[in-house]
Amino acid sequence: MKLTLNIALIQSDLVWENALKNRENFTQKINAVTQDVDLIVLPEMFNTGFTMNAAEMAETMNGETLKWLSQTAKDKHCAITGSLIIVEDGNYYNRLIFMFPDGTFKVYDKHQLFTLAREQEVFTAGQDEVIVEYRGWDIKLLVCYDLRFPVWARNTSGYDVLLYVASWPKPRINAWDTLLKARAIENMCYCIGVNRIGIDGKGYQYNGHSAVYDVLGNSVLKENPIEEETILYTTLVKSHILETREKLPFLNDRDDFKLL
């Protein structure tokens, strides 16, 4: 069991509907990572921006962005995660890829589709929760709008980390800040949120506020909030989870129900 997990959060602007340019930009940013990390986290739809133009922007699981993720993870000897549009069996998914250093991967399809953007009219909702086992850590994968729905994030398995990637707009950033903290507290876990910045092709503005909270809802990052392009580093400590849960066994008092 690895007692620490070193993570780089890349908070970035995105080039609208230009996967090649975004891959090039993230290659530069990843090459600029100055610390030895176990995991690199990218925003939601990191290669296109949050677009509903799935018919033109979708890739397959054998596409260029998957190949790029695999090669990058191998080259950097760490995992890398972020979501993109995937077409599979005639359906479009907002799919979070967790790419391991050896080129294998796990996927999570966004469950709560963003009805204000009519995401549900374009994409198919995922129905499965996904918890990744990585270097002795259990990490639950979630995407953006999932953050508003605590039952879907419910810690019934004792996972260590909630991880959200997002395109969360500036007008509602207070909800992002508040709910990330709440998810950490109620699930007694680390909670990571990586959001983009900039203005997208529809004119929506994003101001980052990527964050990491510990089991008690304290900010782990020294710089918080940040509203510019940056790479944020954090180290998660397993003993913090174990000791806090032993001292404050609140998870033992959970209501006894399961997701169907």
How would you describe this structure in keywords?
globular, 5-stranded mixed sheet, alpha/beta, single chain, 5 helices, 6-stranded mixed sheet, 29% strand, 260 residues
Estimate percent helicity: 10-25%
Instruction: Give the rounded overall mean pLDDT.
Output: 96
- Order of the strands making up the biggest sheet: 5-4-3-2-1-13
Count of strand segments: 13
Show unreliable segments.
Answer: none
Radius of gyration: 17 Å
H/I helix tally: 5
How far apart are the first and last residues' alpha carbons, in Å? 31 Å
Instruction: Supply the helix-strand structural class.
Output: alpha/beta
Q: What is the oligomer described by this structure?
A: single chain
- State which percent range the strand residues make up: 25-35%
Please write the string of helix (H) and strand (E) elements.
EHEHHEEEEEEHEEEEEH
| Overall shape | globular
Biggest beta-sheet profile:
6 strands, mixed
Describe this structure in words.
The protein is α/β, with parallel strands linked by helices. It contains five helices and 13 strands. Strands 5-4-3-2-1-13 form a six-stranded mixed sheet. The chain has a five-stranded mixed sheet with strand order 6-7-8-9-12, covered by helices on one side. α4 links the parallel β8 and β9. It is globular, with a radius of gyration of 17 Å. The model has no long low-confidence stretch (mean pLDDT 96).
